[in-house]
Amino acid sequence: MNQKITRIRRKLMAELDKERYEHTLGVMYTAASMAMSYDADIDKALMAGLLHDCAKCISGENKIKLCDRYHLSVSEVEKANPSLLHAKLGAFLAAKKYHVDDKEIVNAIASHTTGRPHMSLLEKIIYIADYIEPGREELPNMAEVRKLAFHDIDACLYRILKDSLVYLDSRNIPIDPMTEKSYQYYKDKLDQKEE
Ligand code: DGI
Ligand code: FE
Ligand code: FE
């Protein structure tokens, strides 16, 4: 696994701008730390963290072209906000270009931007690590969210989804229905736990 990580790191250095590459390493190590804390597979967390934004630096126009070429569905919201496509396109490229055949890793890349209901432990780890990695700009409630990440993973997930919806709303950015669905699912899950 380590040799493969080194090879992919080298490739990604050429694919991503410097800032995105640094972020990628931050997510990779944060995901590994969370995997240690939650008894998840550390190598899978490293690989998913490393590759989660592998499609991020492709232009919007090319993201849409590549999705068309590879028959990946593009919704109206995604067409209007092509940045959203870096998650599903990244998952596809992880398999096709970086030869990752592990479904769990591919799924974690695919769901890292909007989340989804019923996320696996690895998906949750990548979703959260993406948000809390040390190089991430200070977002609202960051200190609390970072602490929660290692104490209550579902509460942390919910908190990030909630803050993301507030952020998107405040900027009049169209919400992807999957972000809304994920939020509702984890809200209901936490409400049930409290009853
Ligand atoms: O790729 P990163 O910047 O590391 O993080 P990310 O994959 O979570 O992407 C963050 C961006 O995605 C941020 O600019 C907001 C956007 N985003 C997240 N959920 C939605 C969304 N954009 C739209 N239009 N709708 C969403 O529901
Ligand atoms: Fe991303
Ligand atoms: Fe990211």
Keywords:
195 residues, Hypothetical protein af1432, EC 3.6.1.41, YqeK, binds 2'-deoxyguanosine-5'-diphosphate, globular, hydrolase, mainly alpha, 11 helices
Short description:
With 195 residues, the chain is mostly helical.
Q: Indicate how many domains the architecture comprises.
A: 1
Named once each, the bound ligands are: 2'-deoxyguanosine-5'-diphosphate, fe (iii) ion
What percent of the residues sit in helical stretches (DSSP H or I)?
Answer: 55-70%
Cα gyration radius (Å): 16 Å
Mean of pLDDT: 97
CATH class: Mainly Alpha
How many beta-strand segments? 0
Low-confidence runs? none
The separation of the N and C termini measures 43 Å
DSSP summary: helix tally: 11
- What general outline do the C-alpha atoms trace? globular
The CATH topology is given as Hypothetical protein af1432
Q: So, CATH architecture?
A: Orthogonal Bundle
CATH-defined superfamily: Hypothetical protein af1432
Strand content: under 5%
**SS content category:** mainly alpha
List the secondary-structure elements in sequence, H or E.
HHHHHHHHHHH
The largest sheet is: none
Care to describe what's here?
- The chain contains 11 helices and no strands.
- The protein is mainly α and 195 residues long.
- The protein has one domain (2-139): Hypothetical protein af1432.
- The longest helix has 21 residues, at 18-38.
- The radius of gyration is 16 Å and the shape is globular.
- It binds 2'-deoxyguanosine-5'-diphosphate and fe (iii) ion (2 copies).
- Residues 23, 27, 52-53, 130 line the site of one fe (iii) ion.
